[in-house]
Design goal:
The protein has about 325 residues and is α/β, with parallel strands linked by helices. Helix content is about 45%, strand content about 15%.
Length: about 325
C-alpha cells in the first residue's frame, strides 16, 4: 500500500470568499491521506469578500507535482496569467483538476473546460455560459465530472465535491469518515439539484427526516412507497412531493442511492459474499448489485472490493 500523502494544491484567485478557501483544508485534512497547500500568485495577506483578510502562505510553486489542483475564487473576474499557466501545466502533467464555485471561471479562462460539461454557482451559471460558449454549463447540478475535470456549485456543494474526490481515491467508508469528522452530512450525489424550486417553510424543512432515518435502518427490507408513506403517516402523493422538496430526489431514487452507498461500505469493510452484500443493502441479488455498482461507480463489486477493502490490501491510490 502506498502511504505517500496525496498532494492537493488549492490555487486561490481573488476576489474570494474565506469560506471557500477553508473547504479543502477542512475536508481533506479530516482523514490522514492528504497534504493540502493553499497557494496564489502573490503569497501573503489577501482580502476576502465580506470578511476578514486571510493569509495565503504559498506561491504557485506548490502546484508543481501536486496530484490534485483546485481552483478557488475569482468571482468571474479575469485571473492572473501566472495562475492560468500553472493550471495548464498541471493538467498537461496529469494532475487531477477541479474547481469550487466560481473557480470554474478560472478553469474556463485556462481553456481547461473547452468541450466539457461543467457547473458553478447557479447565480453565475448564465454568465459562465455566455462568456465561454465552448463550455456545456449545467446550472442545476451540485458538481460535475467530465473528462477528468471536476467542477462544483458553491458553499455546501463544494464540500460535496471534496468528499466525492475522497470517495474516488479511498472509497465511500473513508469519505463518510471525513464527513463525520468535518460534522457535515455524507456526500450527496452530484446529480442532485443545486436548489429546490418550491422550498418548504424553514420550520418544516426536515419533516421527513425521521422517515429517512427509519429507511436507513431498514435498507435490507424491500421498502415501498407505501411503507415510507405509512411511516410518515401521509399519502404516497404527499410523501413523493415533500420528499423531492427536501432532498431533490424522488423517494425511490434516494433509496437506490442509499442502498448503493451501503453496498459500497460493506464491500470496503467486510469480506461478505456478494449475495449477502446485496441482501444486506437491499439490492436483492448479486446480479442486481453488479448492475447498480457498475452504473454508479464504473466498477464491478469484485473490482471495487479489490480497490478499496483495506483488509484485502486495497486503497492503492
Amino acid at each position: 500500500m502506498d502511504l505517500t500523502p496525496h498532494r492537493v494544491a488549492a490555487v486561490v484567485v481573488p476576489p474570494v470568499l474565506g469560506f471557500d478557501v477553508s473547504i479543502p483544508l477542512m475536508v481533506f485534512h479530516s482523514v490522514p491521506f492528504y497534504d493540502v497547500r493553499v497557494c496564489t500568485v502573490r503569497p501573503g495577506p489577501m482580502p476576502t469578500v465580506g470578511g476578514p483578510a486571510i493569509v495565503v502562505p504559498d506561491g504557485l510553486d506548490a502546484v508543481e507535482g501536486a496530484d490534485t489542483v483546485i481552483a478557488i475564487g475569482s468571482g468571474g473576474e479575469p485571473a492572473p496569467p501566472e495562475a492560468l499557466d500553472a493550471l495548464r501545466k498541471a493538467a498537461a502533467g496529469g494532475a487531477r483538476i477541479a474547481s469550487l464555485c466560481t473557480g470554474a471561471f478560472v478553469l474556463a479562462q485556462a481553456g481547461l473546460l473547452d468541450g466539457l460539461r461543467a457547473t458553478t454557482h447557479w447565480g453565475m451559471a448564465g454568465d459562465l455560459a455566455g462568456r465561454f460558449p465552448s463550455v456545456d454549463v449545467q446550472p442545476d447540478l451540485l458538481f460535475v465530472e467530465d473528462g477528468g475535470v471536476f467542477t462544483s456549485a458553491g458553499a455546501a456543494a463544494a464540500i460535496d465535491l471534496c468528499l466525492h474526490l475522497i470517495a474516488v481515491d479511498h472509497g465511500a467508508a473513508v469519505a463518510n469518515t471525513a464527513a463525520r469528522l468535518a460534522v457535515v452530512p455524507p456526500v450527496r450525489p452530484g446529480g442532485q439539484s443545486q436548489f429546490i424550486e418550491t422550498p418548504l417553510p424553514p420550520e418544516r424543512g426536515s419533516w421527513l427526516a425521521p422517515t429517512r432515518v427509519w429507511a436507513l435502518e431498514h435498507l435490507d427490507r424491500p421498502l415501498t412507497l407505501a411503507d415510507l408513506a405509512g411511516h410518515a403517516r401521509t399519502s404516497v402523493r404527499t410523501l413523493s412531493r415533500r420528499f423531492h422538496a427536501e432532498t431533490g430526489l424522488s423517494p425511490l431514487q434516494w433509496l437506490l442511492q442509499r442502498r448503493v452507498d451501503r453496498a459500497r461500505e460493506l464491500l470496503e469493510t467486510t469480506g461478505l459474499p456478494m449475495d449477502q452484500v446485496a441482501r444486506k443493502s437491499g439490492l436483492g441479488s448479486a446480479d442486481s448489485l453488479r448492475k447498480h455498482l457498475v452504473g454508479r461507480v464504473g466498477l464491478t463489486p469484485t473490482a471495487y472490493r479489490a480497490s478499496f477493502n483495506r483488509a484485502a490490501g486495497g486503497v492503492s491510490r
